TrEMBL record:
Signal peptide: none annotated. Residues 147-396 form the Aerobactin siderophore biosynthesis IucA/IucC N-terminal domain. PANTHER family: L-2,3-DIAMINOPROPANOATE--CITRATE LIGASE, STAPHYLOFERRIN B SYNTHASE. It holds the Pfam family IucA_IucC. Residues 418-575 form the Aerobactin siderophore biosynthesis IucA/IucC-like C-terminal domain. GO terms for biological process: siderophore biosynthetic process. GO terms for molecular function: acid-amino acid ligase activity. This is IucA/IucC family protein.
């Protein structure tokens, strides 16, 4: 059976109940996140037990959606999925997410020019979710006992805040079966030769082009590629070899770069031997054949979650130097060493420049079509008794309704309180230190962190995407020119969003709900532990008191930064990566759940 027929078979035979389940779950997410971002204003019309009963009206007021919910900290709407009802008058109607978006498009403030693309992303997200809920039967307990890549492949939610979080515009059904992380069993990458006049290789000082090649493809394959060029009467010393995602070659490079191909500037050498597994970030690939080899991240010009997922050859030139600078900057920090905090270095890059499109500048999507980076693997950096997991697993609910977090806590043999404390010590403490001590902020969402676990207990983390998604709030002495692009100027209150938005609002908000619902651990107890962790950190570094006050994590309220509003306004270029702060959408403020612990009056927690 071909991939195409296999994928078609999957969707044509999906039970109606699964489609209904997926639409219901995503309407729940839409109601919750759009209400959180104050695009919708639910009207409370009653109470039942401990839940409020709420209603929202469509733009035309023709349709009403009612639901039961508990309002949690950070204006988080914990909505009862079975309670959602759509009506027109007294007639109950089926729940369909595409209809919902159209019915609320004015309240959601979607520009007409963006609506069609957003709907396509919604349709694609529903397609991927339907695959997961119909095919993915791996339980939370099995994942807790499973390996790194089993967990990675079985993640369901995607980004917890974004509604359209699996757009993948550009993939057809066959592409989905080959290249989507939830469907793919891995594939071989294509290898290209780029003429050195148009190709730039950069690496950390320990690596040369030949060293990278001998690790990634071995001397036999390397020599075979060189012989292939010789057979074309070309000098192999004039070329660099690099891997490329098959989709990118077949759909973009082979057509747009046709002139360079005809001129022997860009040459297809053939498939590599190793099998690579797509990760949640879809253009990052893990080597299943030889797990000690580097991750490979390539340009993949599909549109997904507010960006065309290219990779800039201009940025790639400075990536290894930024890796080196950050690593040297933090390497002697004893506090980070005690926390086991490590970064996965982006140690080598290749970028190929299309001479016909250079005139359009480095921000053009056409100038982000042919680049690759190699990132360190975490597997050779852990002990034999340790295991790895994406931190996205903390928020994972399997298709049976069970939380992976609960299974990890059960496997660890410690209480939920002790588990959370160990997790915060591994994750939050290093982020606080990087921010306050070093003015350095990463993008610490679930997919960007890899946890190191011992019997289900998190003991340390690896940070990835450390060059493209990092900011430096204060310029340091003797900063290399290439690193200066990390420097971002912001007010102290906006700087604190590094923790408030990226950690509290975009991760802990969801974790608190799972702990309360699945682990019998109260939301207030969780936030008390967060406050305790911050106080413990601050007590160790009294010299930083001025910074603690300037970016006060215990202030009464903080700015509400809205991610869906960003995507709804421009789903083709959600954020200007060269000026990320000024791209943000701020809507008022939100009450800080740890403000009441400002004076360190934290109750004893035993749950």
């Amino acid at each position: 059976m071909t991939a195409t027929s296999s994928t078609s078979h999957f969707f044509e035979n999906v039970e109606e109940s699964v489609w209904e389940q997926v639409n219901r779950l995503y309407i729940k997410k839409a109601l919750s996140e759009f209400s959180h971002e104050r695009l919708l204003e639910p009207l409370r019309i009653g109470f039942e037990e401990d839940l409020g009963i709420y209603q929202v009206f469509s733009d035309s007021s023709e349709y009403t959606y009612s639901f039961k919910a508990k309002e949690m900290q950070l204006d988080h709407w914990n909505i009862s999925v079975p309670s959602i009802v759509k009506k027109r008058g007294e007639e109950e109607l089926p729940l369909l997410l595409m209809e919902f978006i159209l019915e609320f498009k004015t309240q959601l403030q979607i520009p007409e020019t963006m609506l069609e693309t957003y709907l396509e992303e919604i349709a694609s997200t529903l397609y991927g979710a339907t695959f997961k809920y119909s095919q993915n039967k791996t339980t939370a307990q099995q994942l807790a006992e499973g390996d790194f890549q089993l967990i990675e492949k079985n993640m369901i939610e995607g980004h917890p805040c974004f509604l359209a979080n699996s757009g993948r515009i550009g993939f057809d059904v066959e592409d989905f079966s080959h290249y989507a992380p939830e469907a793919s069993n891995g594939f071989k990458m294509l290898w290209l030769a780029g003429h050195q006049s148009l190709t730039t290789f950069t690496a950390v000082k320990e690596l040369t082009f030949e060293k990278v090649m001998h690790q990634e493809i071995g001397s036999i394959q390397y020599d075979a590629f060189r012989e292939q060029l010789k057979s074309k009467k070309l000098d192999p010393d004039d070329y660099f070899f690099f891997p490329m995602h098959p989709w990118q070659w077949e759909n973009k490079l082979s057509i747009i770069f046709a002139s360079d191909i005809a001129d022997n500037k860009l040459i297809l050498l053939g498939e590599g031997e190793d099998i690579h597994q797509p990760q949640q970030s879809i253009r990052t690939l893990y080597n299943k054949t030889s797990t000690e080899k580097f991750y490979v991240k390539t340009a993949l010009s599909i549109q997904n979650m507010g960006f065309l997922r290219g990779l800039s050859p201009y940025y790639m030139k400075s990536t290894p130097e930024i890796t080196t600078w950050i690593s040297n900057f933090l390497k002697d920090d004893e506090y980070l060493k005690t926390k086991g905090f490590k970064m996965l270095g982006e140690v080598a890059t290749m970028g190929y420049t299309n001479q016909y499109f250079e005139t359009f500048g480095s921000r053009s999507a056409y100038n982000k079509m042919c680049a690759v980076l190699w990132r360190e693997s975490p597997l050779d950096k852990i002990q034999p008794h340790q295991t790895l997991s994406t931190m996205a697993g903390v928020l994972h609910i399997d298709t049976h309704g069970n939380a992976l977090l609960k299974s990890w806590i059960d496997a660890s043999g410690v209480s939920a309180c002790e588990w959370v404390m160990s997790y915060l010590n591994a994750y939050l403490s290093p982020l606080l230190h990087c921010f306050y001590q070093h003015d350095l902020a990463f993008m610490p969402h679930g997919e960007n962190l890899i946890m190191v676990l011992e019997n289900g207990l998190p003991v340390s983390v690896f940070m990835k995407d450390i060059t493209e998604e990092v900011v430096l709030y204060e310029e340091k002495e003797n900063l290399p020119e290439s690193v200066k692009r990390l420097v971002v100027k912001a007010t102290d209150r906006v700087k604190s969003l590094t923790i408030f938005t990226d950690v509290f609002d975009c991760f802990f908000r969801f974790m608190a709900q799972i702990l309360e619902e699945h682990c019998d651990f109260p939301e207030d107890a969780f936030w008390a532990l967060v406050a305790q962790n911050i106080h413990e950190y601050q007590s160790q570094f009294p010299a930083l008191e001025a910074k603690f006050k300037a970016s006060d994590l215990f202030e009464e309220e903080f700015i509400l930064s809205c991610l869906n509003r960003l995507q709804l306004q421009n789903n083709k270029q959600m954020v200007d990566l060269s000026d990320p702060v000024n791209s943000l959408q701020f809507i008022g403020s939100i009450k800080n759940p740890i403000h009441k612990y400002k004076e360190n009056r934290i109750p004893e927690i035993t749950a």
